[in-house]
Amino acid sequence: MIYKEYNVSQSAGVILGSTFSLGEKVYPKGHEITSEDILTFKMYGLHFIYGAEYQDGDVEYKTAYTQIAAAVCGKGLGYVVEGENCLITALEDGIFLSDKSRIDKFNSYNENIIINTIAPLSVVKKGDTVAELNILPPLLTQQEIDDMLFRLSGNFALLSLSANRQYRAAFIYPHILGNEDERRHSTAITMRLLQGLADLHFDFTREIECSFNLENLANAFYQGNNFGADVLFISSPLKGYGANDLLFQALKSITDDIYIRTVPYVGAADLMIAEKSGRRIIVLPYDYDKTSDNFIDDLIKQAIFSEHLSEAVFAHKQTPIISKIKPTQHFDKVIAPQSKGSANKAKIGAVILAAGQGRRAGLNKLLVEGQDGLPMFMHSVNAALASQAKPIFVITGYRHEELEEWLEKLDVNVIYNPAFASGVKTSIRLGLKAMPSSCDGALLIPADMPNLGAAEINKLIAKFDTAKDKQLVFFTHKGVKQNPLIWSKSLYDKADLVPENSEFRVVFVEHADYSKAVELKDESKLLDINFPNDVKEYAKK
Fold first, then answer.
1. Which of 184, 359, 475, 507 is 20 to 30 A from 487 (CA-CA)?
2. What is the pLDDT of residues 81-90, one digit of tens each?
3. Helix (H, G, I), strand (E, B), or coil: what is residue 344?
4. Which helix (H) or strand (E) holds 348?
């Protein structure tokens, strides 16, 4: 498609990019201008109009809706195009299922295609709108649509509905002493559960009491399972402490899978979710009755209504926000942490350059695993994490999805470089652009230096002088310049890596007056993997 401004007299066949009106006449987005329209435009004094022309492979946005919405809609959902939007609609009463992290990812695929949804796990009625899909321009290319469909093809449907049917539930009450305090606690947990699931249909038809030991707990699990309960709830007489406590060991002995061992919720972290023969087993937190928000309730609902349970379903569970500000009772006992390092210590961020294709090596060397099972690039990441460099940016490009899987559980900043094929300087620019102004300089680390350690990085940082505006700090071995290197922020526009011919590159000669060399005797620490034989040797180690 070609978007541009057209002379009204020559605008026949042009597609309007947005809706507008002249008098009582409304010209909708996607409307194709006719000769009659041109006469009307001229009558109103319009001389120019902005729009698009069809090209081969272009698809009108309402047609695009039908392709994308069909891929987005799962069980119990349909779609209808109304006006400029596509509405995703419940075909029956039920529970709306979606994953916020997947919605966020969908909205990152193409800036012209947007989806918004209601809150996951909402109870909806037949005919309710659960999501709105919006395509911004009047035309998309079929290639854009195909790309979106391809990205959606590796998982279950983005949105779905679970029927809000009657669920049979059993409750297990393990006890230690069997006294009144334990009974009051169990009653409070039960009442809190009924409150949290008030809008759902549960038939609590079986209660099982047992002693709090492995054998009796296992027998109680079997009883609940044989009873045919869809869901088995357990109220613990003690606060759990994860994979080492008694309830976890009992669950492990009789269940098929345990999907949640703990959750990031202070005061109620001991929620556990497991499955046996398709039946869900949920260990309620000891202090569940003291929780007032929906965090635990939503995880319970997710466990009950998700058609396909797996650890991935809960992989992106959100950390809850403390809902109420409470004053600290003993403020006079509050300890202020000691400041780390001196005020003059350099603040250096790190940019790990992991976007390249590894052409000289003949393959993507960064994903080649050493004997420790880690891909090559992760050694640079781990060295930076263990060093004094903060913050850390990892620039990815070629096969970025595979690299980013390794980074998912690390608190580093990941930046994708779509122009990675244009050379390492594009990645350097992205990393330095993201570097906070509070940093005195930036450390550039090639991701193909697996022997570099935190100690070496810290030596470079220690050499950086905060009193000097312009500075370039690098390693040498027997006088030869080596990566990695630190550029002061006043030199970011000049920043580059040390090339093999560094003695002759202008940028390194130009800044010789304020360059600092850190001589390193152990050359192996500066090993740079470049060629096929280097990669083979690395994989053997």
1. 359
2. 888 889 999 9
3. coil
4. strand 348-354
